[in-house]
Design a protein that fits this description.
Elements lengths: L4 H7 L3 H10 L9 E5 L5 E3 L4 E4 L5 E2 L12 H11 L8 H5 L2 E4 L3 E12 L2 E14 L9 H6 L6 E5 L5 H12 L5 E5 L20 E4 L3 H11 L4 E4 L5 H12 L3 E7 L3 H6 L1 H8 L5 E5 L8 E6 L6
Parallel strand pairs: 8-12, 8-13, 9-10, 9-11, 11-12
Antiparallel strand pairs: 1-2, 1-7, 2-3, 3-4, 5-6, 6-7, 13-14
Helix pairs in contact: 7-8, 8-10
Amino acid sequence: MEKQSLDCILDKMPDRIRIPLERTRSAYEDKATEIVLRRDAPICIYERKRVLYITESGYLTDSAYAENLLSASAKEIEQTVLRLCDYSVYAFQNEINSGFITIEGGVRVGLCGKAVMTNGEITNVRDIGTLSFRIARDISGCAASLIGKLDPLGGVLICGVPGSGKTTIIRDLARQLSYRYRVSALDERGELSALYRGKAGYSLGLCDVYTGYPKGRAANCAIRSMSPEIIICDEMGDQSDVDLLLYSMRCGVAFIATVHASSMQDLRRREITSKMINTGAFRYIVFLSSGGNVGKIEKIYEMCDARD
């Protein structure tokens, strides 16, 4: 990959913010999961167990009450959005309306602002007040121990809290499994392959990759034309995903996916995730640790004992 995801993030920021973050990056780059700019509020660097702030002179602190904390003005937020869109907001309008922009390095930038509604649909987002830069990581081989425990291979649901490494581990799963099976990757947000201007930043091996498609449409195209044995996608969580799992099962395709959940109890108490596991599409349910190394496995359930 030509540029690390943190480089891609800092390149988009105004110099007044970028320079202090560059100056202190060695102290946070290995552990940080997100950098968040909020209008007229301290800039936050999120790690798994703590939040760091940065002063205007470029010193890190864990106190939100420290003096001279660096913050982003409304104009700087606006300038950053323009840079994220390569100064063509119109070209990124669909992504903005969905609440995120994906940039080089597989970085997804979440946006918060005022939605403009037309006939019940979001047609624009104005007065953007928050930009959340999620730091993407690619750790080749991190899924090797998990693959060794999935015998026989079947549907896999990977669960974890934000920042636990779900995307990182599913990316490596896709890459490793593609050399043994026909694998289609549904990369709706462009995070798995880090596709930017037609070039993938991360290798997905021999996967057939559908980028930017809605998951259901991509799965339909894959099953009709690519003969996948396995379909892999990130972040499931609504009724259309339940329907997608049922469709893939009818077609004899194993599904590997991720979902936000901290425990089996958490997974079962929510209507949609409960429906997902009750489809029978998943042979294994994997929970990642909320602390320690990215992608560290905490617990693996086989469906025969998932009710425990």
